[in-house]
Amino acid sequence: MYSNVKSASVYGIEAKLINVEADVSDGLPLFTMVGYLASEVKEAKDRVKTALKNSNYALRPKHITVNLSPADIRKAGTAFDLPIALACLAASDILPKEKLENMLIVGELGLDGKVNRISGVLPICIAAKQEGIPVVIVPKGNAKEGAVVEGVEVIGVEDMGDIIEYLLGARELVPEKCSIDDVLKVSSSEFTEDFADISGQEAAKRAAEIAVSGQHNILFSGPPGSGKTMLARRIPGIMPDMSFEDSLEISRIYSVAGLFNDEQYLITRRPFRSPHHTCTVTSLIGGGVTPKPGEISLAVNGVLFLDEMPEFGREAIEALRQPLEDRFVTVSRLNATYTYPAGFMLVASMNPCPCGHYPDRSRCSCTERQIKQYQRRISQPVLDRIDLCVSVSEIKYDELNSSKHGETSAAIRERVMRAREVQLERYKGMPISFNSELTGKMTTEFCPLGPEEKTLMEKAFDKYSLSARGYHRLLKVSRTIADMAGEKDIKVPHLLEALCYRNLDFNS
Fold first, then answer.
1. Domain membership flag for residue 309
2. Of 144, 178, 212, which residue is a domain's last?
3. Which one has a higher pLDDT value, 81 or 58?
4. Over 80: is that where the pLDDT of 192 sits?
5. Rounded mean pLDDT of the chain?
6. Which structural domain, as residue segments, surrounds residue 218?
7. 417 pLDDT higher than 80
8. Residue 411 above 90 pLDDT?
9. Is the separation of the CB atoms in 504 and 464 below 8 Å?
10. 348: closest CA among 207, 446, 499, 162?
């Protein structure tokens, strides 16, 4: 007899429906699986047979053929164990086939019949909703994660006995419930690291506020111990709280990467990713034998912090060029092409020289050549994609021991939110939300300059040998500074301040 069970597999961050077909007939006892399968899927037959035996539903010695269609798409992962088992039981006339018609089923089986957690349940439930499938059966450990998606009933099962008795009508399984409002109560105001903790560095704090207001990339340069890392770690705390749509976007990526556990099933805070400088291109950008999202995708809607950026491999730094420009990354493989989002804010830090103390010649013994070579580890094309380059000076004793506290992150975040509201209103109905996302044509439209401003930019363009990209990024930062000041048009003071944040370009 023949049966068909709907399942799904994740490709990139999207899920595609997979039909698990089973045919049980008389003949030589054999269990065959076809359909362009990875090794872990081929091994499912042994897990399925043993799990069913230990659940007291052993398959009769028949000729069993299982096909995962469409057959031209490679299937990987362990999520097909449970649908394969149920398809075989239905084809053996043990389970009613009609009960399986309006369900999507995923889950990995242990040899004892337990249904184990899998990765990618969130995009799978989203795909089920888009395809109009009303019920999704998932492992109990993934039930809360799937219940975040409204419009589908997500039922969690612990073992084979649960789902078999449910399908036979002998047990009632209640769909998992999730209150989105309760989940989103965790806000960025609960960040423990506050800008008020940083002594001095008012110019660097101002630059960080500008960067967050317009979603601009920023690079801090200064001697060791000047507070570069402290500044970076506090940036998520001045970002506005995430909307449900933003939270769902980043949660889908974390789900595919397998970073959720039983307690966490939705990302509610802005992510802060800080990979070590020895990370590979694949871990930074994404990919692998079975492609997975990289650090740039795990930082979507948040911050990617590259501490001591020149220490990263040249190939890894250069790989950031396209994602910084396009806000997505495409990983091509022989079998398929995967696209991952990369809408992150880059925050980087660096020392001005190998020893870290330049331009203090009383402490720095680096030669001019060493300094230039060190700074050029970050190429000009990459610097062109960083909107603000800020010098962070050494902390003085009086500043360090001052009883005066700086502004709190909450106060800075309020100004950031006002600046972002101006941008959201300006770009309403457009495919962008922030000044940093302006295209060349949009920059001309939304960053018009008066005669005095044009004269200043002409001088700056010639004096500092700006590229077209660098010129447009200056205008975008100026637009953000004007928004923060409540000005409709970009003025000379806004341009001059933006020029101050490009000093590393001019010294290289």
1. yes
2. 178
3. 81
4. no
5. 91
6. 188-425
7. yes
8. yes
9. no
10. 207
